[in-house]
Specification:
The complex is a heterodimer of chains A (239) and B (269).
Chain A lengths: L8 E12 L5 E13 L4 E5 L6 H9 L5 E8 L2 E4 L5 H10 L1 E4 L11 H11 L4 H14 L16 H13 L5 E5 L7 H16 L3 E5 L3 H7 L2 E4 L5 H6 L1
Parallel strand pairs in A: 3-8, 3-9, 6-7, 7-8
Antiparallel strand pairs in A: 1-2, 1-4, 4-5
Chain B lengths: L17 E10 L2 E11 L4 E5 L6 H8 L7 E7 L5 E3 L5 H10 L1 E4 L3 H4 L6 H11 L5 H14 L16 H13 L5 E5 L7 H18 L2 E6 L2 H7 L2 E6 L2 E7 H6 L4 H8 L5
Parallel strand pairs in B: 3-8, 3-9, 6-7, 7-8
Antiparallel strand pairs in B: 1-2, 1-4, 4-5, 9-10
Classes of the chains: A alpha/beta (239), B alpha/beta (269).
Chain lengths: 239, 269
């Protein structure tokens, strides 16, 4: 769509194969030759059946999985290739440019929900009180009961944990957001809250690459869908 | 407790803080560690993981000048911004560095504490090493640090022998951090502690490291500890570095056969 602006994320010829050394070096191809671009203010949805490699693509963009090919991210005007970048460059990219909402919250023992959400803000240098205020505002928008704010999310329900995870991903103003099924365990009201948040991010010019299992959410947020089946690794083997 | 929460510790010059190249330690013909190279930047936390006998503790001791290396170099950026080869430092300079700009947290707190003097003195002593002389100020600072590591103020005159294992470890951390080091070496800092005590200590370490902008090298056999504390990770086996990279990348997409074995051997609770 918005071709007037340059893309914030470009994948060019990205492939992923796991080599299982404990199983005699068996190669498990995941995706092959993925190419796509996401522009500011645009939400591109990865489509296709489960197991096709959608989450793996997000993880490669986040630097969590190694990748071959090029994954170029606009980091304040400079294009950084995540596939080739060293650890320090990826850490810096995550701190200021790329946000990621994973499917499951990785809880840290003893850290309250409020602090889990505020952490990316304080890590970026924001005053702790200001960060706590913003975290609370975000938790309130996602209808997380106030009595839970002081508690570590380890004992929360799946839906409550997911809202903490979403709040943590949306509380910052990262120019690129990766969303892996952020509404999977949410009820209708909370799903609507997330859809609204995504809309605000788009209007603020954030580029979003996401996976949404739920039809309603996808219809509400997607500008276009990229069918990951087109990059299925078995296609490469057949060719 | 929090007047300097965002100060980020002492002013940090640009550039790498510690650089090791070709670090090798031989015990007779046995290899402690071989040909290890690494760079650590200000504020960065590096985890060194591996099983017993992998050479990770030997490496840590070599980097911290606690063991003489057989070959290779370790350089450190001094507070004046100059990069110095640690082997070229005079003994007094090295001791001063270890007492002020560095911390070393041992797995067994008794090794890092003086068990015969009070908690307050354990913390105050490091301050006196950097020239503090005013009793009231030293005691005030000691109290502040006991508070930061969640030790009640009324325990300041007790000896560490009367403390639980978790409290002793927290006291050791306070003793190390009171001089505002830029680099802390940690050898299995949560080893030997009960799980609940471990969680509390990990949370504390995470906060202190980020609030003070500390650089740290953490040796651990516990991959969950590495994930919680570190940005980068180094996997060792048989004295050699097998794999390095971003911590979550190494754990979630390990490349080397040995790392795959380590990661796949983690018990799921």
């Amino acid at each position: 769509m918005t071709d007037r602006t340059s893309p914030r994320l470009v994948l060019a010829g990205v492939s992923k194969t796991f080599t299982m050394h404990l199983q005699g070096g068996r190669a498990i191809p995941v995706v092959h030759d993925v190419s796509l671009a996401v522009h500011p203010g645009e939400c591109v949805v990865l489509g296709g059946p489960s197991g096709i490699g959608k989450s793996s693509i997000l993880k490669m963009v986040y630097g969590n999985y190694a990748a071959t090919g090029e994954i170029r991210i606009d980091d304040g005007g400079e294009m950084v290739d995540v596939a080739a970048a060293g650890p320090r460059a990826v850490v810096a990219l995550r701190r200021r440019t790329v946000g990621y909402v994973s499917q499951f919250l990785r809880v840290v023992p003893r850290v309250s929900a409020r602090d889990v959400v505020a952490e990316p803000l304080t890590a970026a240098g924001l005053d702790p009180d200001e960060a706590a205020d913003r975290a609370e505002a975000m938790l309130a928008r996602l209808n997380l009961p106030r009595r839970l704010w002081d508690l570590p999310p380890a004992t929360f329900s799946g839906g409550e944990q997911q809202r903490v995870n979403v709040a943590r991903g949306f509380v910052t103003a990262r120019p690129l957001l990766l969303l892996d099924e952020p509404t999977a365990s949410l009820d209708g009201d909370n799903r609507a809250a997330v859809i609204e948040l995504i809309g605000e991010k788009k209007r603020a010019g954030v580029a979003i690459l996401g996976i949404f299992h739920d039809e309603t959410t996808r219809a509400a947020v997607a500008d276009r869908t990229v069918d990951v089946a087109a990059f299925a690794a078995f296609a490469a083997r057949a060719a | 407790m929090s007047e300097d929460r965002r100060s980020g510790g002492p002013a940090q010059p640009d550039g790498v803080l510690l650089r090791a190249a070709g670090v090798t330690k031989l015990y007779g013909r046995r290899i402690g560690c071989r040909d290890v190279g690494l760079e650590l930047w200000p504020g960065e936390v590096l985890a060194v993981v591996g099983e017993s006998g992998s050479g990770k503790t030997t490496l840590l001791n070599c980097l911290a000048s606690r063991l003489a290396i057989t070959s290779g170099t370790v350089e450190y950026r001094m507070r004046d911004g100059e990069m110095r080869d640690l082997a070229s430092l005079r003994e007094a300079e090295r001791r001063f560095l270890a007492r002020t700009d560095w911390g070393f947290v041992h797995q067994n707190p008794a090794e890092g504490l003086r068990m015969g003097v009070s908690a307050g003195a354990n913390v105050g002593e490091r301050l006196m090493a950097v020239g503090a002389r005013h009793y009231g100020r030293i005691r005030g600072e000691a109290l502040d640090w006991l508070g930061r590591v969640e030790i009640a103020a009324d325990r300041i005159d007790d000896e560490p022998g009367s403390f639980s294992g978790g409290m002793r470890q927290r006291l050791q951390i306070a003793r190390n951090l009171v001089t505002r080091p830029r680099l802390v070496f940690m050898d299995e800092p949560t080893g030997g502690l009960d799980v609940s005590v471990q969680a509390r200590l990990l949370d504390l370490l995470r906060r202190l490291v980020s609030d003070l902008g500390l650089a740290a090298i953490v040796v651990t056999h516990d991959l969950a500890v590495a994930r919680l504390l570190s940005d980068r990770m180094m996997v060792m086996q048989g004295g050699e570095v097998i794999e390095t990279g971003l911590t979550d990348r190494v754990l979630d997409d390990p490349q080397a056969p040995y790392t795959q074995l380590l990661v796949s051997s983690i018990l799921q609770a």
